[in-house]
Design goal:
Blueprint lengths: L1 H13 L7 H13 L1 E2 L15 E4 L2 E6 L2 E7 L3 E9 L7 E9 L8 E11 L2 E11 L4 E2 L10 E10 L2 E8 L5 E6 L12 E7 L2 E2 L2 E2 L7 E11 L2 E3 L5 E6 L5 E8 L2 E6 L1
Parallel strand pairs: 3-18
Antiparallel strand pairs: 1-14, 2-3, 4-13, 4-18, 5-10, 5-16, 6-7, 6-13, 7-8, 8-9, 10-11, 11-12, 14-15, 16-17, 16-20, 18-19, 19-20
Bound molecules: 2-acetamido-2-deoxy-beta-D-glucopyranose (NAG) (2 copies).
């Protein structure tokens, strides 16, 4: 709430500024009108505040109400990448597939990029987006995502308040990139977490109903930790639970991939 208030104050202040920010503001308004926000992980906890864990499909997992996937926890994470396919949801609802830095043990900021998908009636729509949480997300322009497209998403932090988000069309090699700078007005990164996530994000202040996306696989997944490229090995695996406590997404990993399946 505090961060949301700061963000809207800055947005109002920003509207007094001249041209260079017009396009970004325009996108911001559009995105904001849709009310989409990708959030930090919300773990399911017991009465003592301990994260609920379990074993699914021979994998030790932690449970969350909004994230499913894998998170590396440590220090010095400055880049995260993976390739994944735009899923074809089979039930009404939405969801997002993305890679990011922070949002687990660091809650002050998240540098993230990926796609979201919505099935409404017989139509499925997609957006490619970038976000420096707690700012809301912005749609990339110049890229149109369709079912089955393979994209490569990469975030890179050049400091704790600057970096970039890139989405590449793996078929054509075409990329769209957004550079962030001076994001201390939003929040500083900690560089504590590298993650590959399927999320039930927020829309109009409430969590979307997660569409049955089938299986999402993040392949060629890697991160840069203190200058060295690392794989997924050692990550916390997160399964998503519904509010009633049943598992709705189950995930597993290999050294270079994260696979999540809607149950
Ligand atoms: C990537 O390029 C292919 C070939 O032009 C196109 O069919 C596909 O929709 C594009 N996907 C994205 C995400 O740009
Ligand atoms: C669960 O395990 C089976 C057998 O190893 C595997 O084929 C399947 O992909 C796993 N599911 C997930 C979500 O990882």
């Amino acid at each position: 709430m505090k961060f949301a208030a700061v963000a809207s104050t800055l947005l109002l202040a920003g509207s007094a500024l001249a041209a260079p920010h017009t396009a970004k503001r325009h996108e911001a308004h559009r995105r904001r009108a849709e009310g989409k926000t990708s959030k930090p992980v919300n773990y399911v906890k017991d009465e003592s505040g301990n994260i609920m864990t379990g074993v699914n499909n021979n994998t030790f997992v932690s449970y969350s109400t909004n994230w499913a996937g894998a998170v590396l926890v440590g220090t010095g994470y400055t880049s995260v990448t993976a390739e994944f396919t735009a899923p074809t949801p089979s039930t009404a609802g939405s969801g997002a597939s993305w890679v990011g830095i922070d949002g687990d043990t660091c809650g002050t900021a998240i540098l993230q990029t990926g796609i979201d998908w919505t099935k409404s009636g017989s139509s499925v729509t997609y957006d490619a987006w970038y976000e420096w949480y707690p700012d809301y997300s912005y749609d990339f322009s110049g890229i149109t995502v369709s079912a089955g497209d393979t994209i490569k998403a990469t975030v890179t932090a050049t400091s704790k308040t600057a970096g970039k988000a890139t989405v590449e069309n793996v078929t054509t090699g075409k990329t769209v990139t957004h550079s962030f700078s001076g994001e201390s007005s939003e929040g500083d990164l900690c560089e504590y977490n590298a993650e590959w996530i399927v999320e039930a994000y927020e829309e109009d202040g409430s969590q979307v109903s997660l569409a049955d996306f089938g299986t999402e696989t993040f392949s060629s997944a890697s991160a840069i930790k203190s200058g060295t490229t690392v794989g997924v090995t050692g990550a916390t695996i997160i399964d998503m639970q519904s509010s009633s406590g049943s598992t709705i997404v189950t995930c597993s990993d290999t050294s270079s991939s994260v696979k999540c399946t809607y149950v």
